[in-house]
Design goal:
By secondary structure, the chain is mainly alpha-helical. It has eight helices and three strands; from the N terminus they run βββαααααααα.
């Protein structure tokens, strides 16, 4: 699981720029078994690690740290469509809609892994509160899915929690 409820540490633009993203875990969700409260976390200087840190920071309510980490990730891997999509969603959620939609326009559909692309578009629209688009893209992703992994993701994605009681989402 990737549900980190509490985090504190360094790693945003006002902090120790140029150093690795690091912090101490304050609390964890029930789906996390590989980490412990109080454990120090240091992420290597790689795009994927920064993206992972961003998701953890967002789940801990630290959106500006998450945005900072996604920008570092894009510095390492500027072609990453999924990092661009996540950053667009986080910017919109942080009230920076114009910047978020501008980033969204830079997302290019990949040539492979189209089910992942549709799934991530479902996440994007769901995370910014656009239910109709969420349902549309999630339906497309489910039609393309070759494994049950997508259903596991939908069950555990914290950004879908607001839709769990919605009859359209449950269908």
């Amino acid at each position: 699981g990737s549900e980190l409820h509490g985090y504190h540490g360094k790693g945003h633009a006002g902090g120790n720029g140029g150093h690795e993203a690091a912090g101490v875990i304050e609390s964890l969700g029930p789906g996390v078994s590989s980490l412990q409260v109080g454990q120090r976390v240091v992420l290597e200087d790689e795009a994927e690690a920064y993206t992972g840190f961003a998701i953890l920071a967002k789940n801990a309510g630290r959106m500006e740290d998450a945005i900072w980490a996604l920008r570092r990730s894009l510095e390492k891997n500027p072609e990453s469509w999924d990092t661009r999509l996540i950053l667009a969603g986080y910017l919109i959620r942080a009230g920076r809609e114009e910047e978020g939609w501008a980033m969204f326009k830079t997302v290019e559909k990949p040539r492979v892994n189209l089910d992942l692309f549709e799934t991530n578009l479902a996440w994007f629209y769901g995370s910014i509160g656009r239910k109709a688009e969420l349902l549309d893209y999630l339906g497309r992703a489910l039609e393309m899915a070759k494994t049950p992994h997508l259903l596991d993701y939908v069950r555990t994605e914290v950004d879908f929690d607001r839709y769990r009681e919605d009859a359209d989402f449950a269908a």
